[in-house]
Each structure stands twice: as structure tokens, then as C-alpha cells.
Fold this protein.
Amino acid sequence: MIEIQKLALAFITSLVPFALAHPAFPATMEENLQTCKKVGQLAESIMNARQAGATPSKMIEVVITPTMEEDAKSLIMKMITNAFDEPRYNSPKFITRSVQDFRSKAESECLSVVMK
């Protein structure tokens, strides 16, 4: 596996416990914003790994653990499959844009859930 894949997958793994530790979102607006930032960081890492050539199965192997809550597993699986619905680019400019767009969409979706 190339180095950037290793870094991206390691970062994904480090974010999972923080972003997805509890199925219920925190109560305060600030906590909700922080949770959605973590979800955005997770999405960014997933798309970076996808753009670097990581496979869906490798991401799942690295990120999903047997003790992880089902809600967290579902969210991660959805992010991974959504990342692979997007094209893989060669141009750094297009890679950066696809990563930023993917993160923004994840944060927006998170905010729409927690701010209801």
C-alpha cells in the first residue's frame, strides 16, 4: 500500500472513536457542531484514501471493528460507498475539490440531522 493510503487510513481509524462513539448526538449546539466537524474529517479522510487508490474492502478492514456500534458501522459503510460513487482524479486540483466537496456534503448532512 502506498504511503498516502497508510496515512489516510490511519487518520480514519483515529477519528472513528471520536466522531462515532455514541449513536445519539450530543445535546448542545457546540457539541453538535464539533460532532459534525469530526464527521466531516472522517469523510475527508475516506475521500483522500479513495483518491489515493485505497480499495473499499481495505478501508472497511481498517476502520470497522467488531465492537463498533451498528450505527457507526452503517455511517462508515455509507461514507465509503458514497466515496466510490465519485470519480477518481489524477489532477491535484480536482482531487482537492472532490475531497472538499465530499467533506462539505457530509458535514451538511450531519448538521441537517442534529439541528432538527
